[in-house]
Amino acid sequence: MGGRLTRVFRNFNVENRARRVISKEKPTPAPRHRTARLDTMADSPEIKEEVLRKDDRFLTLLKDVYVESRDPPVQVKDGGSEHLPSKQKEKRLTKLGHLEALDIKKVSKGKISLVEALTLLNNHKLQPQIWTAEKIAAEYSLELKDVNSLLEFFIPFTVMKFPKETKKAITSHKPKQLT
């Protein structure tokens, strides 16, 4: 309903308003500023003559200059469509545990794979005296500040199994009767 009402007011007397706008005189544009360079060249023929005159001294110097250009020899790349990385990063072999099939084999230095991260977090959680941050940094080629933040902010999950007798106690509990 509101759309119809606004459309009526918008289209009211639209032809007369359009004619009024079209019939207005166009505003005159602002005058352009004359550039100083064109004005001086048009006024003084000496400057035109100086620009067009050839200087013999410069021409003799220009004749002495000889430029020889050669393209570098074309190098043929072997390997077809294989693209090589521009910067070779130093890689290290991963420390694979029992999840060897799930993980990648080589990792850049300063980085760890997901399986290695879970392994080192679990080792630190189980034996924090042996697996210190310094030992982990040396073992996995990481920076000490990164290892400290990793050990501080990431904690592996623990799986807890409840004994059967507590399950029986929960299921054997009789609900209250509503009267």
From TrEMBL:
The processes (GO biological process) annotated in the record are:
mitochondrial respiratory chain complex I assembly
User: One GO cellular component from the entry?
Assistant: mitochondrion
Segments spanning the bilayer are none
Highest taxon, organism lineage: Eukaryota
Q: Which InterPro entries match?
A: NDUFAF4
Please give the subunit comment from the record: Binds calmodulin. Interacts with NDUFAF3.
**What family does the entry list?**
Belongs to the NDUFAF4 family.
The protein depicted here goes by the name NADH dehydrogenase [ubiquinone] 1 alpha subcomplex assembly factor 4
